[in-house]
Amino acid sequence: MARYLLRSALRACINGGVALSVAALFAHGAQAQDAPADRVEHGRYLAIASDCVACHTAPGGKPFAGGLDLNTPFGTITASNITSDRATGIGSWTLQQFDAAVRHGKGPNGHLYPAMPYTAYARMTDADLADLWAYIRTVPAVSQKVVENKLPFPYNIRAALIVWNALFFDSTPFKPDSAKSDAVNRGAYLVEALAHCGICHTPKNAFGSDSGATYQGTSLQGWHAPDLTNNDHTGLGKWSAEDIVTYLRSGTNRYTASSGPMTEVIVNSTQHLTDADLQAIAAYFKALPARHVEAPQPLPATNAQVEAGRREFVVQCSACHTSSGQGVANMIPSLQANPAINAKSPDSLLNILLAGTTGPATTANPTGAAMPGFAWKLQDDQIANVLTYIRNSQGNAAPAVSTTDVAKARKALGAQPVVWH
Amino acid sequence: MNYKRPKADVVIIGLGWSGSTMAEELTRAGLNVVAIERGAWRDTTTSFPTTRDPDELSGSVRKDILQAPVTETYTVRNKADQTALPLRRYHNLTLGNNVGGAGTHWAGASWRWQSFDHQPYTRVMERYGAKQLVDGLILQDWGVTYDDLEPFYDRFEKIAGTSGTAGVINGVKQPGGNPFEGSRTSPYPTPALERTRANLLFSEAATRLGYHPFPVPSAMIGAPYTNALGLNLAPCTYCGYCQLYGCGNWSKSSPNICILPVLMQRPNFTVVTESEVIRINTTPDKKMATGVTFVDSNGDIGEQPADIVITATFTLDNTRLLLLSGISTPYDFASGQGVVGRAFTFQTLSWGFMFFENEYLNPFMNTGALATQIDDFNGDNFDHTGLGFIGGAGIQSLCNQGLPIGMAGLVPEGSPQWGKGWKQAFQKGYQNYAQIQGQGTNFAHREQFLDLDPTYKDRFGQPLLRITFDYNENDRRSGRFVRDKCVEIAREMGAKQVWGDSFPDQPYSGYRPWDSSHVQGGVVMGEDPKTSVQNRYQQNWDIPNLFVIGASSFPNNAGYNPTVAVGATTLWTAKAIREMYLKNPGPLVRV
Amino acid sequence: MKRRDVMKGGLVLMATATLASIYKPAYSKTFVGGSGLWKADPPPPLTVVDSSRLVYLTQAEAKLVGAVFDVLIPHDELGIGATEAGCVTFLDHQLAGPYGAAAKDYRLGPVVEGLPQQGPQSIATPAELYRTGLAELDRAAQAKFGKPFIDLPEEQKIAFMKGIETGAIAFETLKSNEFFSMLLQNVREGYLADPMYGGNRDMVGWKLVGFPGAIYDYRDWMVSKRGKKIDVEPVSLLSRA
């Protein structure tokens, strides 16, 4: 349960629409107090790499002052105020207390809910933890009382988490693998200890803990976090290391553009990482073992849904994605043999088609090309058909999308059904 | 309630092409820039999505994207002894009503003006002498030459992603381009658009007649392109919903896709939208500008103090703002003295219209600036000896309209406009209509000018701008000359029915179908404070921290569209501010 | 003149850097750079007009204007006529909206008749002009033929409309030829605009000339179909492909 809770909460952070200005982060780093400036600066970098701000800032609120409601299936958890305010923030904390919270999931009032990704941060080195603390202490104090726990019984019993931790919480610090390159080790550290990619991209077992299918992609609350393993059909098999770097730096690459929660991750976090760190992350993923994924047979072009969907595609989609589905590099995703389209779950596709996307606007690629939503325009069967067509043409093969799938997604998004035709 | 905003380094009035180009340059130089824009914020995906954009009624018929006359309009008369009356309905001057200005909905013809166009006085005197000028014509050089501007033309094209085929690179003629163009240092950023059937018929006919056809440089992107500011642009889809529409596909260069996303990444940039500047403020001695006063959409009066004031509104409104603010000397028609409102120009259009018999021209497959042109009769590219006029026109096969409401009246001569006969004629005419536009020069004249209207007021009670304009004798002569060339080519194209028109043969009207939207001058740049409002850097002669940018600075119109020349002169001025003015604030040219 | 109705609501200062905070009411806004992407307020979704009832015209006016429209665009072997295509519904909704109210025109005085090239100076709205003009049209028909326009045989309707077009049959309170121009423009709009506005039923106007409608991409055809006939079923903005 708890890992699921964490992932739900993360999603809430992201859906809360927090996109903090880079300038704001830089401004705080300038007010170093007792730690050397370079340690504080390094801590600021770690905070970005760990994307702390995504959850610990409310929409429109001051950075790190908390107050963002994380709506999980179990109830609401509100992210805490981690500014240096002594009364409402963590200004009175010691490094040891900070460590207990960040790496061990223990707050002053008992166990933290694993909405806080301490399961990942547990792997952070002592030196990095100290630097992160040095930076957090420079964050200007904001007096904002946050009531963290709004969970109903029985989820409000923090003691229950002791059991979960005993079962699933691996608090072993990160250890480099001497058989692997420095870059791969650095990438592993960034991915596992800081950026906590697996929280969304690794499927969970029945208890909400990692299933062992590491980075094989999974769905959560209307989005599918894609497969990051090395396979051509649904994963990153075709992407070069440079494609991964370009994507994390700019939000786009020659194949695609980010959408949904990942756009926020890129805008808030990965675009600010150094080139060496992005190369390390890419090296890490490319070093993962190749994985065979059996591609299904695509539905035939004569399939009624595919046929109807092709007509919708010509009218609704080709203007941007082009009639061949090729798209435009660094702007408009190619639909051709696109692993995200081949994902078994159509969740992200439904979300994007219904609600549109907010384009990634980064320093490296400020274009921010986005896609308009079609919820107001297309009926459920039209959307089901066009997605089924795209998933079974242009080199793609994936299960059909049904009108029921569309209706469910529409309901979840709060979008109204189309009333004409 | 009235309020004062914190002082900025620079305030820019209007965030269209010139305003956003200037804002990008000055924020990059580290200045704190505030732009005040009358229109609303707009972004491509939200405001012009492909899901709703292809709609002729709201677009080119109801003109929803334009600033409405209810917001502000102009009064017009042909002669100084007539009473000017307001343009009450949507007219031919198509102002933008949003961040991005007219640069969001423009047709996108993207010309570098020629060497002649920047120095018409010198060139005419050298080649023909004063005898070539009709009575009352005002001809003066800009103080800046094509060679001065070339790097800035180049830069602006690389911001816009202009598509085209180069004609002359580093002095060497290139196949397929315009052999008359000024020498370029680099080719167009993106390749020329595909040609239509009508373009090809024109091209073949013009070649047979010994002329030199080439693709008109266009804001419609020819291939995926990353512009000079790192923004990605997508190739044009020829959807045909272009002029008077925003582009939903990142395919038409506009401030919205070519500049604003970068500007909005800069903490030293702010834009206040839906607020109209009503006055430029100055010190009591009128030696320095101190900022601007604006009305926000709540009706409250705001003040934006600044060290530098840059006026980047629509051409006519630049003149109006100076007149409303009592800056520089207004032009006095009776005495011929004064400068603000003087040297106002329009454009001289001539046409060849034609109907073919059994073509499939498929007019709906087009973009705004999809045209093939000859420049053999433009500017001073031909010998005018004995012709009695100067200037000329770019003569082009223009394929920018195929939407049915707009074409419903285009039926062969003699066909009914309604009833059964109209249905038959429209069905046939739709696929068989083509046109050749002669987009001609217009030179300033002492009887063409702008001033404040004594009677009509805007929504805030401020006087409207009054346009006094009619075509002069030079226009009438050049118009007929160009019309005959249009008709000659149309006949050669093999059309069954051909007729021509020269607009200067009728009095000027703000409503004439097919007419131009290009107006220039009123706040011209030049070499002499007696005949210009500002110096060669578009810096006010009297107030050194005031720069009025845009086509209002141009003392004459060319046989081209003005936007890229506006972009180039804006970048030229931006460099002067960055590299000269900031180091030593004061007049950049001493008389 | 009334202030534009947008002149209400406050100045929303948006100094914060979050995406969420940009979804504030429209009106004057201050956008500060440094936060990446700014979004505009989305326009309301497009909808199809409700053709089941009249929203401006009276029943009698609708019947009369339908009869006039059917003279201008008749039913024949090339397709259905104007009324059948929904042009009266189109007009009715247009007159009830900003077009009918001349909401975007400059309407401040003084109102002075000018030279033709100075353009229309009347500040009467299209809605007002239809109310007056249709009554005048019927009076003129009564005066000329002794019966209402709708009861005239086809040839007389055509002859009468030619008289209106040229101004030979005059009205008392407005220029008949100017009213004719408006009728002709509006019926063409109804017949050729997107069907969501109430007219152009089954895209009859687009099929008449072979216009493909709300298509956004002709890249594949620019060269391959240059100079060739294109057989394509048109699509409208809200229709099914």
UniProtKB/TrEMBL annotation, chain B:
Residues in coiled coil: none
Pfam families: GMC_oxred_C, GMC_oxred_N
InterPro entries membership: FAD/NAD-bd_sf, GMC_OxRdtase_N, GMC_OxRtase_C
Gene3D superfamilies: FAD/NAD(P)-binding domain
Transmembrane portions of the chain: none
GO molecular-function terms, A-Z: flavin adenine dinucleotide binding; oxidoreductase activity, acting on CH-OH group of donors
Start and end residues of each Glucose-methanol-choline oxidoreductase C-terminal domain: 453-568
Residue intervals of the Glucose-methanol-choline oxidoreductase N-terminal domain: 231-330
Domain of life: Bacteria
PANTHER family xref list: LONG-CHAIN-ALCOHOL OXIDASE
Family under the similarity heading: Belongs to the GMC oxidoreductase family.
Keyword terms, alphabetized: FAD, Flavoprotein, Oxidoreductase
Record-given protein name: GMC family oxidoreductase
UniProtKB/TrEMBL annotation, chain C:
One Pfam assignment: Gluconate_2-dh3
InterPro entries attached to this UniProt entry: Gluconate_2DH_su3
Superkingdom: Bacteria
Protein name: Gluconate 2-dehydrogenase subunit 3 family protein
Organismal lineage: Bacteria, Pseudomonadati, Pseudomonadota, Alphaproteobacteria, Acetobacterales
